[in-house]
Amino acid sequence: MSTLTADAFSAVVFAVILCGSLLATYVVLFLLQRVMSGFPGGIPAAVLRRLREPVLLMVPAATVLAALPLARFGADSEGFLYHGALLLLIASIGWTGMRLFDAWRDSLMLHHRVDTADNLRARQVITQVTLLRRVALVLVVITTISTMLMTFPEVRAIGATLFASAGVAGLLLGLAARPVFTNVLAGLQVALTEPIRIDDVVVVEGEWGWIEEIRTTYVIVRIWDQRRLMLPLSYFIEKPFQNWTRRTSDLLATVMLYVDYGAPVQELREHFHSILKESQLWDGKAWAFQVSDATAQSLQLRALMSVANSGDAWDLRCVVRERLIDYMQKNCPQYLPKTRLMVQASDPPSMPGAPP
Hints:
Structural class: alpha+beta
Number of strands: 8
Oligomer: single chain
Radius of gyration: 36 Å
Largest sheet: 5 strands, antiparallel
Low-confidence stretches: 162-169
Order of helices and strands: HHHHHHHEEEEHEEHEEH
Number of helices: 10
Shape: elongated
Strand content: 15-25%
Strand order of the largest sheet: 4-3-2-1-5
């Protein structure tokens, strides 16, 4: 009975200590949040906001480990509490590591906004941080779970037994998980070499769209008609594709016209320039109107103009094509492409007995 009373008393004391440490941690975090909210930029407050939950888990676990030797629990109760607190402490440390990475990502995103006109550097930073976070998340989760499992004596014994056959098991596991590891390593290569970035305009598998998301093992491409194309990360390392915004977002858009040989090229060139000057889609950097080819049936005219981004390129191409064709239909329809046929008269066949 005295042992039960001692255990009950120790449990009450422990509950009071845990509640006190939890309340003190909450008060300290609240006061720090109020103080750091006045700092310019909002980065300290964002970091503290990310760390609140793992710290509220870490402090009670550390309190239990520190106060447990002073308690008068039985051996079984003490072992159970010690193991549980140790598992919570390991989990909270892993959680804190990921929240610190998230806080670093938040601070970078505050200084690199993608909702601006010149967002190349912002897209580079966000792409790298996103990929590195996914890889770090996998490593932290594996390390945390492995560390927690190693606190069980049974698991350590199984690990020692399986260590002898680790070569064969590792080979089989490597063969089975080869696609996963290939894409994870491809993610690291994408983060370092940057063949693609978030919001890049690409042409892949014959489809034109934007890089919407870059996950741990695959990429989501948003097609222009709102479809989604899923591709493994290794695709962008091993296969060719077009990236229209690799260095800058501005592009050169072209429109091809086919006209008759008699078409007034200079007149069409002047009208094309007037179309550009009237349009807000043209950025004013460059333009050209040239005869790019001549076939047996028609001339090929190329209208070239510079634009700020891929969306403006598509819209301006449609406008220029439509207005040039409309101009020719109204002013020189005879010079639209046509097929020529030559009919040559021949002598009528002679009839028998007819005079020469």
